[in-house]
Structures are given as structure tokens and as C-alpha cells.
Amino acid sequence: MIQVRIWDWPTRIFHWALAILIVALVITGNVGGNAMEWHFRCGYAVLSLLIFRFIWGFYGGHWSRWRQLACSPELIRQYFKTSVTYPPFLGHNPLGSLAVIAMLALLTLQVSTGLFSDDEISNAGPLVSLVSGSSVSLATSWHKGFGKTFILLLVAVHLLAILWYLVKKKQNLTLAMLKGDKTSATPAQSSKDGPANWLLAVLCILVSAGLVYALINLGATAV
């Protein structure tokens, strides 16, 4: 068996940072009050990570790139056919790829609506002043209702899938995301994961954070 580097350090840091921030967002959102200040900060951090992940999908390690997330309807149909036997996927399988895209898309929608949400008490998103009252109401309704629910459901499905792979297929996906490596019976391309890639990742996250900073200050500039 050959050890293959699948998840580079930037991808792994992104994954675990995002997981921690989602937990923090749920807690601070439910607590409310003064905790909302941290809710907003965590939301800005998530948006920065999402922009970073979009960029990293073009410049990151081999298995972190968008072209590896193959999830066309035909591929998913073939994946579920019992007559087809697939070798173990080193990256994401078609269903996993679809789940990743769905999670990233939903999180992007969730943090975006948070920028325009207003609880009509003491907390308002930084871009509320840029849109109409009806748009704020719609964004708030989604952010506090369906959006939050859908994300929690996807997280639950994700955790159940990890457990299923561990119990049924004896594949520890959590360990792979911690260590970055998977075993393969045949040679496979490894993701580049060295100082040059790490420096590129730092530049990407700085650009992402800069874009978010500029975005959240648009409302203040308009006022």
C-alpha cells in the first residue's frame, strides 16, 4: 500500500477552521445579546474562508481543485448502480462532491443573507442600509429559518456519512483529514504540500480577508 498526500495543509486548516466557526455561529446565534458581536465576527471569518476555498479550488493541491469534484447526474447515477464496482475514491466520490458543493453554496448564501439581516432590536448586518426593508425582511427570514435548518441538516448528514464509512467500509475519513494522507493500492498523484503552497495559501487568505473587510464597510460608506 502506498501513502498518498490527498489533503494539503491549507485545505485541512480550512476544513477544521470552518467546522469550529460553524459551531461558534450556532452557539452565539442562539445565545444572542452580547454574543452577537462574536456571531458577526465568526460570520466574517466564514465568508473569508469561503472566498479562500473558491480561489484554492483553482490553485490548491491536486485533490482540492474543483475539477476533482465530479458530480454530474450521470456520474451519480452510475455510482449508485449496484452492477458497477468502483475502486476506493482517494478524493471525494460523486455523492461526496455534490455534498461539498451544496455545503459551500449554502454557507455562502447563509453568510451573505447575514450581511443584510436585522433582528429589529440591537443587531443589524453591515449592508442593511444598502437594500430595501422588504429585502432585509426576506434575508432575515431565510438566515434565521430555512438557511440555518438546511445547514444543520447537511452537517448531520455529513457526520452520519463519516460514521457509515468508518463502520461499514472501515475507512477513517476524519483521520485522513487530520493527517492529509490516504493509502492506495496503486500509484496516484499526490497533492503538492510544501512551503511554496503554504505561502500561496497565506496570500489567498489575506486577499479573501481584504475583500470581506472592504465588503462590510460598504454600508458604512453609503451612510
Strand count: 2
Largest sheet: 2 strands, antiparallel
- Integer count of domains: 1
Terminal CA distance: 61 Å
CATH-defined architecture: Up-down Bundle
Which bin fits the share of residues in helices?
55-70%
Q: Round the mean pLDDT to the nearest integer and report it.
A: 91
State the CATH superfamily name: Transmembrane di-heme cytochromes, Chain C
Tell me the overall shape: globular
Pick out the low-confidence regions.
none
Q: Would you list the SSEs in sequence order as H and E?
A: EHHHHHHHEHH
Strand order of the largest sheet: 1-2
The total of helices stands at 9
Structural class: mainly alpha
CATH fold-type name: Fumarate Reductase Cytochrome B subunit
- Computed CA radius of gyration, to the nearest angstrom: 19 Å
Strand content: under 5%
CATH domain class: Mainly Alpha
Please describe what this structure looks like.
The structure is a single chain. This protein has 223 residues and is mainly α. Helices cover 65% and strands 4% of the residues. It has a single domain, classed as Fumarate Reductase Cytochrome B subunit, CATH 1.20.950. It has helices at residues 9-31, 36-59, 73-80, 94-115, 133-144, 146-168, 173-179, 195-216, 218-222; strands at residues 2-5, 181-184. Strands 1-2 form a two-stranded antiparallel ribbon.
Summarize the structure.
The protein is mainly α. The protein contains 9 helices and 2 strands; from the N terminus they run E-H-H-H-H-H-H-H-E-H-H.
